[in-house]
């Protein structure tokens, strides 16, 4: 199936997608800051430059887009209908890199929390879920012994 946009228009759209300071990331950062949690942003001191890093707790938080990082079973992790081979290879590389980064962080004693974009979208429309997820993040940071959690 052909793309509904011209090649130039599609390229312009894709060029606008940012890797840091995204809306979901800013939403989570704002919610954590309102809870008086202080953290580093896009911290280069550990592998993977996590979106949010709690230095004392040694917790890296990645706010991942479902499309780019292939959230299993998520409606936002669809496969484009054009140039499919390119996109499948791109997604596979992203997922493989994520796994390597998470493993390296775990080997260095850094705990990893992944917050998915679809969770953030649901949080915006449901105040109860918002509070639950932020509490879950706080629990992971301060009392968790697990090395890896996805929300």
Textual characterization of the structure:
The protein is an alpha/beta fold and 151 residues long. The protein has one domain: 3-Layer(aba) Sandwich (Endonuclease, Chain A), CATH 3.40.960.10. Helix content is 49%, strand content 13%. It has six helices and five strands. The protein has helices at 7-15, 23-34, 66-69, 84-107, 117-125, 127-142; strands at residues 40-41, 52-54, 59-64, 111-116, 148-150. Strands 1-2-3-4-5 form a five-stranded mixed beta sheet, sandwiched between helices. A hairpin with a 4-residue loop joins strand 2 (52-54) and strand 3 (59-64). Helix 5 (117-125) packs across helix 6. The longest helix has 24 residues, at 84-107. The model has no long low-confidence stretch (mean pLDDT 90).
Give a brief rundown of this model.
The protein is an alpha/beta fold and 151 residues long. It has helices at residues 7-15, 23-34, 66-69, 84-107, 117-125, 127-142, and strands spanning 40-41, 52-54, 59-64, 111-116, 148-150.
Radius of gyration from CA coordinates: 17 Å
**How many runs of DSSP E, i.e. beta strands?**
5
In DSSP terms, counting alpha (H) and pi (I) runs of 4 or more, how many helices? 6
For the record, the CATH class is Alpha Beta
Shape: globular
Mean pLDDT across the residues is: 90
Explain the layout of strands and helices:
Layout (H helix, E strand, L loop, with lengths): L6 H9 L7 H12 L5 E2 L10 E3 L4 E6 L1 H4 L14 H24 L3 E6 H9 L1 H16 L5 E3 L1
Helix pairs in contact: 5-6
